[in-house]
């Protein structure tokens, strides 16, 4: 090894000590670095694998657990009147409906409140249907002025915890006069507002609020006729009245109305039928979820290509992960070859899935229940079909005591051991460096003394007498 020196041929203790220490520790540091890099890559690979498996299982659970891939649709012939949705249990059919009224939210206003002396303010009780809550207006003065403004009254009503957002108070100025507007957030007659001002205390506020408020919007229930409203308007058993505009009287169907029909209008039609587009989307979600998992597994087990410089996947030599990938592909091929292929879901040569939408929609229309039987479900109580097989195999990896947990524990222990080795290596490196530096410093001192001795002898025995 070359020893670093200065221009005067004197050793440099620092550089020489570092060079010698690096020489004797380079191989060990390289091994620790390589092992740490490999452990970090393995840990990252396990994280990616776990995320991919968990995401696929969650997608599978969302699509099949106690559910059906089939989606029922519910549509109105007049979409301006509202909207409807249908669950998978809704029976296909056509219904005639007439919307006589939509439920309204009660709204009233108080005028002439002006600025009330805060000292006169007491408690206002607001009744909403069968419930009520009290607002202590004596504490509503927020700006320190002796007068209580309409804005402060509105703020106190909205901030009252027992209100629970059942009533919204606002201020509208008309002709320069502030109006207190109270709106019930409970629709229909159930949300009708009433007021008790007996505890307000004698004064201008009680005087202003004692008369009945002006009714801006009347509290009315929604009225729906099934089969159409009879000409004589007499209830023959098909009239539904309720405070909400959302109806669920038809099994599996939820209808929300936003507009009433005019008297004399023909009944509208509600059609409940298979939504092939949404069902196709569900099937495509299954295909996409599987293909994403397959792509992650392929990347992790990719053998790489040295000729093109393509690096191998972190689990390229891991037989366990390759078995996982191959088992998933095998399970798909065994099942897809049969019933799923009839619905246009086929396995490709590279192991991914593909969906033929046209064939799928035709097959679903011809045999709606066959799709769920083919895919099955991954419910814990009764797993079945391809979903059950895939989930059971994946669970052996993702469960609490599964393969992934065991591997993560093993890698964590290895990383801890490598960290300890690195710490010890750095301590040993420092000790070795300090030892070499001390030795080279002594050598430098000895060299300086020898140089001085040489100079002295040169001076004593020199033949040049001119100096």
Could you characterize what this model shows?
Helix 1 (13-64) packs antiparallel against helix 4 (276-301). The model is unreliable at 1-7 (pLDDT under 50). This protein is flat. The chain starts with 12 loop residues before the first helix and ends in a 6-residue tail after the last helix. The chain contains 9 helices and 19 strands. Strands 1-17-3-13-14 form a 5-stranded antiparallel β-sheet. A 4-stranded antiparallel β-sheet has the order 9-10-4-12, with helices on one face. It has a 3-stranded antiparallel β-sheet with strand order 2-16-15, with no helix packed on it. With 467 residues, it is an alpha+beta fold.
Characteristic key phrases:
single chain; 467 residues; alpha+beta; 3 domains; five-stranded antiparallel beta sheet; 9 helices; flat; disordered N terminus
Quick gist of this model?
The protein has 467 residues and is α+β, with helices and mostly antiparallel strands. Helix content is 45%, strand content 20%. A hairpin with a 2-residue loop joins strand 6 and strand 7.
